[in-house]
Each structure stands twice: as structure tokens, then as C-alpha cells.
Amino acid sequence: MLQSIDLQRETAPNSSSRATAVTSGEPSGTDAPPAQALLAAIVESSDDAIVSKSLTGHITSWNRSAERLFGYAAVEAIGQHISIIIPDDRLHEEDVIISSIRAGKRIEHYETVRRRKDGTLLDISLTVSPVRDSHGTIVGASKVARDISERKRAAERQVLLLREMNHRIKNIFAIVSAVIGLSERTATTVHELARDVRARTNALAIAHELTLQDIGPTTFQSQQTTLFALMKALFAAHQIDGVERVSIDGEDIPVRGNMLTPLALLLHEFSTNATKYGALSTPDGRIEIDVRHDTDFSLVWTEIGGPAVYRPDGQGGFGSQLEKATIGSLQGSIEREWDPTGLKISLRIPATILRGEQR
Q1: What is the helix (H) or strand (E) element at residue 345, kind and residue range?
Q2: How many CA atoms lie within 13 A of 148 on its CB side?
């Protein structure tokens, strides 16, 4: 019980009188357990992993939460070096920690990575305190580790969502600018220009509405539409005087709610790039889309009449990252042919994914 007693002394600053009372071994009531046993029970039942080690780094105690967190039973861990849970690229951290402990310093809320018995890595927040014997000599260290993996993932998701929102807003501005340009070429009056811009931005709003889940009083319910309806809504803003600049041929298929958003994101990326750099950036450019649905779903996007296109240098920006993440969620693939006369995109998605049988 020495480690538990000293842990109480070290983790309660300026509480020497309390430490003396706790380690007295006297029950606080008729039926109360001894203070040492009570403290040990608190450590054992803690939701945080609590571990103590010697100054040589060998584990001397290991509570149940440490077993759950790191996957080693106490009998496996005690006596082993603490490096059994430290990834190779972070072994240098142990030297820094031991140096701080020898100097009597406490390390608080240090975020790092540790390794479970099965080899998986964990994001943890670590607090390390010196452990002293009855003479005040530092004889080891106590560690309190908390799993922050979910918090890290939530933060990463939030960053991705913020970047996606920022990217979408920029694309919306680009599309609206292109829509104004299209309307400007054909409008002869201010009233006609305003009417055309309003009609095209309304088409964009309709496409956006198709990609949203239907929000009920207490639940979210998936919407269902067809692929052709989605594409026509997305591309309606690119018409000039009723002329279809985007033609769609092939087999129409139903698209369920959980497929709407990723498909709309991909098609939106394709059309945005075509508006900025491809066929839709010129008055006479057009796009032909061919859809087939046999063993798998395939979509071939061919740009005609636009400026010469060439394979870009580098890995691409956030749009490329978003596209990669989106096609990954659909378990599909995208191939591009950078023909100077017009870009050709081939999209393929497994039929089972499109039907919503696997997600």
C-alpha cells in the first residue's frame, strides 16, 4: 500500500496533515474500512488509469483502468519496464519524464500517444507526480492517464467540417460569379439580368435542398430522389436561354438519402471545376454525362468545347482531399483522362453501396 499512500500525499498539494490522517489506519466510523484500504479501493475503481513506477522505469502498480486502457493485466505489467506501452518514436519522452521526477517536478496534462498490448495507438492525457518515501526521498513516480482518443477524433472532425464549410462557401461564390457571368452575356436589360440570376441561384438552392435530410419533429428521415433529378437540379443554373449545357444519357436510378450528399458533393466538385477551368467556363462549352448500371454503377463525364486542359502539378488542394474522402466513403473510384480537347472523368461505385446494402 506504500505507493497508494504516497500517491495521496503527492497529488494533494499542501495537505500533509490530511496525508497523516489518511495513513493513520484508523476507521472514520464504526463500519468504515481502514483508510489505507479505502484509498486503495478508490485508486482501483478510478476511471483513469493509475500506474506507479520506480526511478528505473519499472512498473510497481497497475489499476483496473490501466488494464482496460492498455490491455495488459496487472500480473503482466507489474515488474515490466514502462516502455511496453510507449511507441518507439516516443521513447525519448521517458527520459524527460524521469529527469523531471528526479528534480521533484510534477508534469500536468501532457498529451501524448501510448501503445496498447495489441499494438494500436491511443491518444492520452498524462499527469506524472513524484512518489516519496517516509523520509521525503523520491523513490518513483505515479502516472494518471486518461484516454482522449474520442476527443481528438471529435476535434479532427470539427476541423474537417469547418474546412469543408469554408470550401463550400468559396465554391458557392465561384458558381454565383459564373452564373452572373452567364446571365450577363445574354441579358439585354437590368430586369432581365436580375431575373436570370434569380432563376439560376434558385436552381442552386433546389439542388441544395435535395441533399438535405428531411428533419421531422424528433428524428431525421432520409429523402430519396433519382440520379437524373439530382443532376438536373445541380446543373439547371448552367442553362442559357433554355439550352441544356449538360446532357444526361443512360439509365436513371433511385438515390437514397445516405447517398445524396456524397454524390452531390462529387458532382458539385466536378461542376465547380468545369465552371472555373473547364467547359462551363466558356459560352459554347458543354458536358455529356453517360450513366450505366449493370454489375456496378458507372458515370462518364466528358467536357466538350472548353479551353485546353492539362494534368495539374502537385497533390491538389482541399477540393481534391474532399473528393478523395467522399469517394472513399462510397468505396468507389475516380479516373481522369487529361485530354487537351476536354477532360473525361470516369466514376465507378459498387452496386451494393448505391442500393444502401453496405455503409
Answers
A1: strand 342-350
A2: 16
Decide if pLDDT at 359 tops 70: no
Predicted local confidence at residue 89, as pLDDT: 93
By the 8 A CB rule, do 350 and 332 touch?
Answer: yes
What letter would DSSP give residue 342?
E
Residue type, 2: L
344 band by pLDDT with thresholds 50, 70 and 90: very high
Q: Tens of pLDDT along 292-330? A: 987 888 999 999 999 888 887 766 655 566 677 778 878
pLDDT at 69 over 90: yes
3-state secondary structure of 143: strand
Residue 198 cell numbers, joined: 434569380
C-alpha pair distances (Å), 330 with each of 171, 262, 264: 22, 8, 12
Residue 301 pairs in a beta bridge with: 289, 345
Give kind and range of the element (H or E) at residue 109: strand 107-115
Write the CB contacts of 159 (distance below 8 Å, at least 6 apart in sequence).
Answer: none
- Cα gap 84→72, rounded to integer Å: 10
**263, three cell numbers:** 454524390
Cell numbers describing residue 201: 441561384
pLDDT of 75 reads 95
How is residue 225 written as a grid cell? 430522389
The residues with which 131 forms a beta bridge, in sequence order, are 140
* Cα–Cα distance measured from residue 41 to residue 65, given in angstroms and rounded to the nearest whole number: 12
